[in-house]
Design goal:
The termini are far apart. This protein is 75% helix and 0% strand. The protein is an all-alpha fold and 315 residues long. It folds into two domains: 150 residues; 113 residues. The chain is built from eleven helices and no strands. The N terminus is likely disordered.
Amino acid sequence: MPNEPSAATASFTTLIGGRPMPPPARERPAPVPPVRLRRTRRELVLLAVVLALVAAAVIVARLGLYTAASNLGYWLGIAGGTAMLTLFLYPLRKRWRAMREVGSTRFWFALHMTLGILGPLLIILHSTLAFGSLNATVAFTSMALVATSGIVGRFLYGRIHHGLYGRRATLAELRAQAGLDSAAVHSKLAFVRPVEERLTEFARCAEAAGQAGLGHPLLFMTLGLRALLARRWCTAEATRVLRHRALVEGWPVDRLARRIVSRNALVAAHLRAIQRVAQFGVFERLFSWWHVLHVPLVYMMVLSAIAHVVAVHMY
């Protein structure tokens, strides 16, 4: 949790543990981007796609091609409402033993997220963003809050689980990961003392952010920016020293390029590991709060949607 001592509290050499390892005789190929980095990129792409779809739905809804009471508008509302109701199959599967053998958790979770995007888009198209009654306004607002809450929950879920469909991570696992990254970084950057000092400084900053938690939100929210600045400085310094050594020792160009890529990747992985250790407790707490808030929003959406449907068909 945020007030627990973090692995990032120790000095850089203490954090990695053990004696410096001699550099390998042969350089390994440049590492591929870490899984978490690729996952973050996919999340950003997904968010951009969702925002683009919402913008497109808003534009189409406001073109005046139909009304909510027309045949097209009516069936768009039916489709959107059906999609939102189908969302409940995922939590129902988790709680109803008879459904646990139907399909995989991965499939149901993916379906839940897909319908959570498709349903609100259809409701936007159905409403044409023209609300003629209070219950319609309340129903649409509730739906928008639930959809936004779902996106936030998806972000928080990914920060405390191993992947989108993986098991829940633990703080001990993340600390161990940070330690392994530290050993790799130290073994290949022991000749760059300023870089080690900058990494130790970031570790202390990350510890302070983790302990402060939401008590100092600015410190917590800027930790990613601090990691980015530290990574740029460390990689620039390591690259400068490597180029100097290459010039003095007469390294081939390809050897220098491999070492630069390898060292920079290790520094970035180490900084990400320490950042995640510091942020884990806060994200875990936020996810628990999100769950408490999300459930009442869902009930409010269902009740207001039922009231809207009844009012439409009665009057």
